[in-house]
Amino acid sequence: MRYLFKRSAVVAAVGSAALFAACKDSTSVPDLNNVSSATIAGGLNAATAQLLLSGLLNNNRTNNGFRYLVFAETMARDVYNLDPAESRFITELLGVPIDPSAFTGGGSWLGYFQSIRTGKALLEGIGSAQGLSAQEQAGVRGITHTIMALELLRAWEMRGNNGIPVTVPNTINDPVSPILCTPNALAAISAILDSGATDLAAAGSSFGQIQLPAGFSTNGSFDNPAGFLKFNRAIKGQVEVYRGLAGNAASFTAAVTALNASFLDTTATTLTGGVYYTYSTAPGETQRPIAASTIYLNPSVGDSIQAGDLRAAKIKTIARVTRNNVQTTYTTTLSDPANLTGPIPIIRNAELILLRAQAEIGLGQLDAATRDLNVVRRKEGGLPNYATFTSATAAINALLYEKRYSLLLEGGAHRLVDLRFYNRFNATNLRKEQSADAFNSVLPIPKTEIDLRGGNVTCQ
């Protein structure tokens, strides 16, 4: 089932509000297609609040789709999308500077800010929503702040030091929002997450009438305020690690604090617990975005995995494929075109443990970092423990290896961001893929955004 709505001047270009799960997982929202601005301006109620929240969550899942995953993993030298009809997945992402007017340079942008507009509408209207208790209203605010922060984090992951705006104007007549450089953008995202945490702490023991998609309960209990707060702290931990890598050393300590308050669990038998996007082949629903026969692995992925690593099960050796100026002998089970419904993690336990190790490396706590890295290495890779690291460089090399193979083609630009922060985007650390390899680590600000701002996209 699909719920579409528009709100001119207040919620412009919000986009599809299709529910996450199949009809059997419906959040029981009535069919309020094309909700008018007058209807929403008259005040939210339980049904319209659920509709807007479902739209926000669906946009978040859509924004984590094919382009986001493939663009990030291609630039990070993990994936090739060898589409015979479109060579720019290779020639631009790996080659010449990316064209800001093309689908590559202009991609992974608008959808995030459509979500921010939807979130603003929810936050502005939820306080007077009819039929929702104060605790239910707090729950909606907590969810909304968390998902808005996640959308902004993804926008920043793709643009890095080019910067991002962290809010949108209320109307087309308002001035454009400033573009923030990495330190200010990440600080703003962190503050939004903290606002969400405050809201969730006031939301009681359940979300009441508000329901979340199946992926918040299939691998843990994140469909209630206490569980969702752990999800919020997980994203907060990721943001604080990035703030630490960007130069704010105190953020590494904040990252450890947040991650310890999340659902991180080194004692779990498997490290799959977490929040997931779910997919369906039911009419009107969304199928798994990376179920594509054109996705192959960069040769460095298959060539670099250590002997005996159980994560090699993700890698398939095939006859050599040469296309779009690259060649490979590897594909991956993760992009099996027959797997149309398999979930994709938003964030899971293995990533949290690796993020804490990353923060510990930043703090110089190499003993603790070694212990955390070994949890993932042993439980997911089936490999013997690392000896305690005696240098940050050795620990970082191990971190990059463990993150690469545990988080391959999962829901985030993990490796892209790490290579960027650790200054690995150069010929010393990466093999040239094209004759004009630009070692692209970020996407440009899209041409439409440049034009809207009269050419001034210098971040603050």
From TrEMBL:
InterPro entries xref list: SusD_RagB_dom (IPR012944), TPR-like_helical_dom_sf (IPR011990)
Family listed: Belongs to the SusD family.
Coiled coil: none
Domain RagB/SusD: 324-429
Pfam families, sorted: SusD_RagB (PF07980)
Gene3D superfamilies per the UniProt record, alphabetical: 1.25.40.390
Major subcellular location class: membrane
Alphabetic keyword roster: Cell outer membrane, Membrane, Signal
Keyword Amino-acid biosynthesis: no
Record bears the keyword Membrane: yes
Top-level taxon of the source organism: Bacteria
Protein name: RagB/SusD domain-containing protein
Signal peptide interval: 1-21
One CC-aspect GO term: cell outer membrane
Subcellular localization, as worded in the UniProt entry: Cell outer membrane
Higher taxonomy: Bacteria, Pseudomonadati, Gemmatimonadota, Gemmatimonadia, Gemmatimonadales
